[in-house]
Amino acid sequence: MRLTVIGTGYLGAVHAACMADIGHDVLGVDVDVEKITALAEGRPPFYEPGLDDVLTRALASGRLRFTTSLREAAAHGEVHFICVGTPQQAGSQAADLRYVDAVVDGLVPHLPASCLVVGKSTVPVGTTARLTTRIAGLAPAGVRAEVAWNPEFLREGFAVEDTLRPDRLVVGTESPEADAMLRRVYAPMVVAGVPYISTDPNTAELVKVAANSFLATKISFINAMAEVCDAAGADVVTLADALGHDTRIGRRFLNAGLGFGGGCLPKDIRAFTARAQELGVGAAVAFLDQVDEINQRQRARTVALARRLAGGDLAGRRVTVLGATFKPNSDDVRDSPALAVAATLHREGADVRVHDPEGSANAQLAHPELRCSADLLTACQGAELILHLTEWDQYREVDPVKLARVVREPVLVDGRNALPHEEWRAAGWTVKALGRPT
Ligand code: UGA
Q1: Nearest CA to ligand 1 atom 35
Q2: Ligand 1 midpoint to CA 260 (Å)
Q3: Does 314 reside within a domain?
């Protein structure tokens, strides 16, 4: 099938490459010339494991091309996927839909024939209905563009795997024809047994925000338990393990620590709250404010722990932060809890060095005041305190005996509860973590 994928960020670039990989004729579109040039040359514009291979394969097959022209996209696609960002609006909790609207406004007047416009971005419930009206006013005479919503559930760091082998496909359409078309798009996955949930657009839009809200709630739940553990002298990791054995609960997303960040969970729960208020059901999701608050508090608690370990004052202390990205296996530093903590430590007068295997360049751009490095030993040289804030595998492989020789004081805060504490203690380190007895 002839598909266009508009917006080539984490979502769109991976979707475009994977759709070509499963046999479609795909045109990727973005306003960013640099991004399009890089993708057309087989260079992913961000770090995502496995994307370079799929991209190279898809380009070599001749089934994947890139353009900056929406006019060209209009001529190409039977199905147009919208994959642009829906960030938080400045000065509000709500989602900013200007990029989605700009795609529609730029695409629809050029459509030569009827087609399907499918949103994949995370949007407030009711967006399909709003876009349907908008498109009707823009489409050339005799051309009908039906809107459907098909939310994406991929995780950064596992984006290729999640796109090719998703847990489920959720498709919200207004007509059986649109549903049949999307079944054809995803036929190889459907045949392979991926559950295909066919529903209306409102439900499809809502599934995505509900899923992210649930995940955020699960993380804040365990972080709230970590606070209780600290007060009671209990161990949140053992607690999570024990809870996780109950198959109704499950162990995943119960890793207590610094909490969630990134370009999705934080802004999605806020946008959901804002939309629920518009719908007159703000009270039903008011608990998400607490989820957000608990999450922010873990950053403050981590800074307070560092301050305590520094004897009450961070001014002039040499601190090293391990990890700058919002999660491992990504170079994304958007709303990164690790960087937020690093910036606060710097504001409190600490001499902060930040290390990240893939995200140090982005971290340096976002926080020019911090000293970021991709070399671990350089970053740790002379440190009086080390904070492990993003759980890259590389940090689990660090030899604590060797690291102890490089630092001035062997003191570690494990903000992700992911390092082998006993091994570090045996190597002479003082190890502290939220929710853990000492
Ligand atoms: C999230 C969802 O997991 C995806 O399903 C969704 O498609 C995506 O948002 C999106 O809306 O596009 P992602 O933001 O890539 O994916 O990252 P997650 O793996 O969900 O992690 C989010 C944050 O939660 C990270 O900062 C991570 O460190 C934190 N986290 C995760 C915890 O603090 N504890 C956990 O147990 C799990």
Answers
A1: 253
A2: 7
A3: yes
Q: Is residue 372 annotated as part of the catalytic site, yes or no?
A: no
- The pLDDT, as a whole number, for residue 61 is 97
438 belongs to a structural domain = no
Residue 302 lies in a domain: yes
Among the atoms of ligand 1, which is closest to the Cα of residue 337?
A: 26
Residue whose CA is closest, atom 24 of ligand 1?
260
Confirm if 65 and 27 have CB atoms less than 8 A apart. Answer: yes
Let me know if residue 437 belongs to a domain.
no
CA atoms within 13 A on the CB side of 303: 21
Does the model's ipTM exceed the 0.95 cut?
yes
Scan for tokens 């890259």, then name that residue: 392
Question: Which of these, 267, 289, 279, lies nearest to 220 by C-alpha position?
Answer: 289
**How far does residue 262's CA lie from ligand 1's centre (Å)?**
7
Q: How many domains does the chain have?
A: 3
Residue 247 lies in domain: 209-288
pTM above 0.95, yes or no: yes
Q: For the chain of 438 residues, list the mean pLDDT of each consecutive stretch of 10.
A: 97 98 98 98 95 97 98 98 96 96 98 98 98 97 97 96 97 98 97 98 98 98 98 98 98 98 97 98 98 98 98 98 97 97 98 96 96 93 98 97 97 98 98 95
Using DSSP, state whether 90 is helix, strand or coil.
Answer: coil
- Residue with structure tokens 């529609």? 104
Find out whether 394 and 357 touch, Cβ atoms under 8 Å: yes
CA of 154 to the centre of ligand 1 (A): 9
pLDDT at 190: 96
Ligand 1, residues at Cβ distance < 6 Å: 122, 152-156, 212, 215, 219, 253-255, 257, 259-262, 264-265, 326-327
Q: Per the structure block, which two tokens stand in for 94?
A: 């709500």
Q: What is the pLDDT of residue 160?
A: 97
Q: Whose CA is nearest to atom 31 of ligand 1?
A: 253
CATH code, domain with 264: 1.10.1040.10
Which residue has the CA at smallest separation from atom 29 of ligand 1? Answer: 260
